[in-house]
Amino acid sequence: TCKIFNIDTRQSVMSFTPSETALWTCAFNKSRDNQVIFGAQNGITYIYDTKKPNEILHTIETLNRTPVKWIVAVNKTEAFPHGGFFVVQVRGLYFYEYHNGYELRQTKLNFDDSVLTATYDDKTEMLLITTAAMEQTFHILTRLIKVDDIPVLQEVCRLPANRLAGGIPKFTRPTQIKVPDGFIVACYMDETKDLQIHTPSSKLHSIVMQNAISDICPLYSDNAIVAFAALAPLKCRIYKVNLEYR
Prior knowledge:
It is built from no helices and 21 strands. The protein is mainly beta. A hairpin with a 6-residue loop joins strand 3 and strand 4 (35-40). The protein is globular.
């Protein structure tokens, strides 16, 4: 069961139980008001209208019945004027595009490696994927484009991450951060125990951490301050990005 809470009252206002299978992920649909999307362990994706929490609006099944790890909603863009969402499964990455405002079109994307994490940033309009290949993990920044009217992932840059020789590294989700002249990537390196900031071509900065970082996300404000938050087991630290780093 997944519940939606009122932040002011801290009370549950509605709950969703689409099947007896455990839900692994959820997201609000950015291109559709009042819609919420759930991904389940059985590989099925469910869409609800929050105005009718007792009725499933859409049920999406694929031939790939591996668990849905991430649902990543995408706002309307120039290439995708009606928006859509990514469905990231243990083996398979799909994009669902709204066509003519209502019809959902499924595309299995050109990415066959296993996906450890996946995050999308509305400001960069890019998808950041962490994947494992051989004895190394990589952070791959991709842009969703259209080729002959078919959604395709275009690789923007690839950054080496943790090595797997010593076992599976700690689960950490990196982030991309929009800056005036492009973007930077913030990630935690389990091997060296530091938080690193990268441009597409070089490492800018590193901060030694006392505790492992499990999640990182960008923070944007109206006064042009760019920052990001890094979540450790007992603390959430916020770092301001010095935009004069060039």
